[in-house]
Structures are given as C-alpha cells and as structure tokens.
Design brief:
heterodimer, A: alpha+beta, rod-shaped, B: mainly alpha, 8 helices
Chain lengths: ~260, ~200
C-alpha cells in the first residue's frame, strides 16, 4: 500500500489501539488496514508499543520466587514441544530498503547501464537478423534458379550461343535433346517498346521459321525461357529473337536482335 | 555522545537477547535459563503491577516464559524489541487474568510493597546493561513526572489496569473526550522523552 488511506481521526486512534482501548470492531478495522500492507501505520503501532513497554522500566524491580525458575526449567526438560521448529527465522528487511554503500550504488548503476546497452544491441541485432533473413530468402531463390539452369545444363547435350545483331545483347540456350526441352537465358536485351514484343524462333534446315513463343525482358534486360521444341519442328539449324508487333507474327518481320547457330 | 553509547548498549543487549531466542528455537535449555535470568525481573515487576498479587504474578511469569520457549521460532524482530515483545505478552496475559478475577467477583489483592526488595541490580545483566536499565528507568520516571497527576493516572489505568476509556472517565470523574485527549497527549510526552531508547 503506497498511501495510507486512514483519516486523521483513525490515525490518532492508533495510540488507543496500542493501549488496548479500542472495541473489537475498531481493532479489526486497524489490523485489516495494516494487514493490507500499510507500513507507516505498522511502524507507528510498533513504535507506540515500544514506548508503552518502556513503562515497565519505570516500575520498582521485583524478583519472582526461585521456584518459578525451577518449574520453568523442569518443564522444559521434561515436556517435548509439539512441533519442533525447523529453524529460527531472522526476518529480513525488504531488498529495496537495504542501505547501499557508494560502491554498491555505482555497481548497480553500471549493471543497469549494461543491461540497457545490451537491450538496445539486441533490438538492433534482431532487426539486422530480419534483414539478413530476407536477403537469405532472395539468395535461396536465386540459387534455386541457378540450380535449375545447372540441372538443365548438365542434362543437355547442346549449348547454343546467341549473339547480338543490332545491340550488344547476348544469350545462351541449353538444349536437352533427350527431353526436347530448352532453356534460353538472355541478357542485356532492353525491354520491348510499347506495342512490341520479342519473339523467339527456331529456324529449320529448310529455312522455315517456327515460333517458339513471345516474351518480354525485365528492367535489366534479362529473361529465362524454359521451352519445349515445337512438334512440327524438323532439324533445327538456328535460333533467333526478333522484335515483333504485339501478338507476334507468323514469320520474323522485325529486326533480328539475337541469333545463334545450333 | 552519551546517547550514542546508550543506543549502542541497547543494541548489544538486543543482540544477546536475539541470540538466546535463536538458541531456544533450537531447543537449547541453557539459553532458556539465561533468557529467564535476563528478563524475569522486568516481566515480573510489570505483571505484579497489573495483578497486585505475587502468587498470581508468578504464575503469569511462568506462563509467559513457557510461551517464549514454545514460540521462540515465531519471534519477529521487525515487530519490535524483545523487551517490548515480552511486556506485550505479559500485559495481555496479566490483564486477561485480572479481568477474569474481577468477573468472578474476587476482591483485588493489595500488595504490600514493603515485603519485596526493590533492587535495581539484575544478576542476569552485565554492569553496562544494568547502567543502561537505570538510565531507562530514570527517563520513564522523568517523563511521568512531567505529566500532571490526572494524565499519569489515566495512562496507568489504561495500560496497567486494562480499563476502557469510559471506565477511566467514570473512575476519574472526567468527560470521556478529556480522557481521550489526556491519554493521547501523555503518550506523546512519553514518546518524545523515550525516543532514544526506541529502536529506529
């Protein structure tokens, strides 16, 4: 209880309480108040009881008969206490009321500062860890893509290099001849202008151009294109990429940006 | 400087008393013996004042020290000094007995003080403690002397006779409010004058 909520009149009655002058109901009210943790009233009552107990020192000293001492010691020697006490308990002062030396205060302040610094460090560390988690996830994704490429490369029998014809773009195509699957990996091919689209072509040995599909590149000019060889495609002589109107063309009509012999 | 020495002496005496209680909690009968020798006169003098009967007072003293022996492990030093603890225990038992006697209609025994030896020499205490007790006695008597007769009488009737404020008012033929004020003011005088003997 931080604040004592007794009225002034009730406070004054603590003296009467110490003297045993209150009614049972009044005693109950005060003891209930103290039991709730009012340390100031507890201290006040203890002090008043101490003061009043001092009255005993003002009395003429009288000594009881020796038989009292004999009876007491004889009783203690013969009667066993019903409940053997476990241990004498020395009540401890609450930790927050312990007096602190200067050294202890400084040490306590240092510990608090260290704890604060550690808390700040942990918060920053946690943020950094979250950031790194995101980067790790991105790297894992990239690794998975690379692994796909490596997997395809390891299975493929053919590697086709595509060279830029108009601009300085480049590309590689990995052809898994066993499964007729392709993976085109294009770099530095700028995004197609509005209303245009890139189209990939398979050129046969009969000089026919068969569309492999339409695509766009990302802002970096890169794209990965996993494809299957068109069904009606006979022997492939060359692959090429042209810029065509949106929706694509039946035959390459726009400029060939990349091409490579198979 | 003198007051500091007295406080030190009191603390030393208190420490010895606490050590004895601690030993009693471990059922050390020699500690009970030493404790009794140290405090029996204080308790007996007080109980005798309440009961005015030597035989009854001796019975109460036996009960009080037996209670101390049995409950030594329950002593809580945060609730006051050992002497205050003993006096409160003795007061409670003595007043109960006094009231029981009055309910039974027995006539109060009158104590003839001349039959007792009033000695300030306590065999259980060392000379420094005896000196300290004398100082304390002088301080109490001085504080009581500072009060008027009516105020002192009101406090004595409350503390030693266990009378209620209404009973005191009737006995002293004073209004209840006056009695209340006198008692509280008297206790404040005691508190002020005995400050140095009370543990912080």
């Amino acid at each position: 209880m931080k604040f004592c909520n007794l009225s002034k009149q009730q406070k004054e009655s603590l003296t009467d309480y110490a003297l045993g002058l209150l009614t049972a109901q009044e005693v109950k009210a005060i003891e209930s108040h103290i039991a709730k943790g009012c340390t100031s009233c507890q201290q006040e009552v203890t002090e008043l009881q101490e003061v009043l107990a001092n009255l005993a020192y003002g009395l003429p000293k009288q000594q009881p008969a020796d038989k009292v001492r004999r009876q007491l010691l004889a009783r203690a020697a013969t009667e066993v206490r019903p409940n053997r006490p476990l241990k004498f308990v020395v009540p401890k002062r609450p930790w927050y009321s312990m007096p602190l030396h200067l050294g202890s205060r400084v040490a306590a302040a240092l510990i608090v500062l260290m704890l604060l610094a550690e808390t700040v460090y942990l918060i920053q560390f946690n943020r950094r860890a979250l950031l790194l988690d995101g980067q790790i996830a991105q790297l894992k994704e990239q690794i998975n893509k690379k692994q796909d490429i490596i997997s395809t490369m390891s299975k493929s029998r053919r590697l086709i290099i595509l060279d830029g014809k108009v601009i300085k773009a480049s590309g590689q195509a990995f052809w898994d001849t066993n499964h007729n699957s392709w993976l085109f990996y294009i770099q530095k091919l700028p995004p197609a202008p509005k209303g245009k689209v890139y189209q990939l072509w398979f050129i046969t040995d009969k000089n026919e151009a068969i569309s492999g599909g339409l695509f766009q590149t990302d802002v970096n000019g890169s794209v990965q294109l996993p494809l299957k060889t068109p069904r009606d495609c006979a022997t492939i002589r060359e692959t090429a990429i042209s810029l065509e109107p949106e929706g694509g063309s039946e035959k390459p009509r726009g400029a060939i940006y990349l091409s490579g012999p198979v | 400087m003198e007051a500091q020495c007295l406080v030190f002496d009191q603390q030393q005496a208190e420490m010895t008393g606490r050590e004895l209680i601690e030993r009693m909690a471990q059922q050390d009968q020699l500690a009970l013996q030493e404790f009794y020798d140290r405090y029996n006169k204080l308790v007996f003098s007080f109980v005798l004042k309440v009961l005015s009967c030597r035989n009854e007072a001796e019975e109460v003293v036996l009960e009080v020290f037996w209670q101390v022996w049995q409950q030594s492990n329950q002593y809580n030093q945060t609730r006051g000094t050992i002497s205050a603890w003993l006096v409160m225990m003795a007061r409670s038992r003595a007043i109960d007995r006094r009231r029981a006697r009055e309910r039974a209609g027995n006539i109060l025994y009158i104590v003839d003080n001349s039959e007792f030896q009033d000695t300030h020499q306590d065999s259980g205490l060392d000379p420094e403690e005896q000196f300290y007790n004398l100082e304390q006695r002088e301080a109490v008597l001085s504080a009581l002397a500072e009060m008027g007769d009516k105020q002192r009488k009101a406090i004595e009737l409350a503390y030693f006779s266990g009378l209620s404020q209404s009973e005191i008012a009737t006995q002293l033929q004073e209004p209840l409010g006056t009695i209340k004020t006198r008692i509280r003011a008297g206790v404040q005088i005691l508190r002020e004058r005995l400050k140095r003997f009370i543990e912080p």
